Amino acid sequence: MPYPLHVTFRRLAVLMCYALLGAGLLIHTAHAQADDELMQRVHQFLYEQTQALGEEVVIDVRPPSPHLPPCIRPEPFLPNAGQPPLGRVSVGVRCGEAQQQIRYLQAQIDVIGGYWVAQHDIERGTLITQDMLARQSGSLSALSSQALIDEADILGKIAQRPIRSGSAFQANALQTPALVKRGQRVTVIAQGSSFRVAREGEALEDGGLGDRVRVRFESREILTARVTEQGILVVDF
């Protein structure tokens, strides 16, 4: 006996509802899996960037907005690549096959490790030496963005202002001592795999180790060279 027409339509409506619910569940599951993959990829990326900074690293990545589409083939990057990712940071992520979509996630990174502080008060104009440094351990993320962690970035620098005992060394409080003075006669060395040429010229500006300084020669030619030691510059090829 055939079912009444209204019963058939009701069953069809119920089946369509189940189908829509199932499709929605599949979409939600796929979206959730993509978000999990995105967060895992960002977490791993941040760990790789910070594991060498200290003895303990704690990373908390905030979930992406549920209103955004899934991020396919996520490739994280740091917008401020020149600064160590400590404290609250923003992480860029390139999405899609062509990596043309970019979104940003927020993360909190806490690193416990060692850093250098002044062993005693240091006066302005003082050359920083090993006996002025003391090792201290603590939260690196609590330090300012200007704090210097590596000893090599501190030794041999000049204090631009007084530094109190126990204070972390700040990049903006130190300067590289000038190895070349403006107006000084300097030697510029250019060398390659099969040649080495040295010329004398006049430095047009002050420069410390690693700084790039303009030099003028007797021919009035001007070029830029890198300071390597007192009165010596090298042309990079």
TrEMBL record:
Keywords: Bacterial flagellum biogenesis, Cell projection, Cilium, Flagellum, Periplasm, Signal. Pfam families: ChapFlgA, ChapFlgA_N. Its main location: periplasm. SMART domains: SAF (SM00858). It is found in: Periplasm. Residues 1-34 form the signal peptide. One of its GO terms (biological process) is bacterial-type flagellum assembly. GO terms for cellular component: periplasmic space. Coiled coil: none annotated. Residues 113-175 form the SAF domain. The keyword Signal applies. It comes from the Bacteria. The keyword Isomerase does not apply. Gene3D superfamilies: 2.30.30.760, Antifreeze-like/N-acetylneuraminic acid synthase C-terminal domain. Belongs to the FlgA family. Involved in the assembly process of the P-ring formation. It may associate with FlgF on the rod constituting a structure essential for the P-ring assembly or may act as a modulator protein for the P-ring assembly. NCBIfam families: flgA_cterm. This is Flagella basal body P-ring formation protein FlgA. It comes from Vreelandella songnenensis.
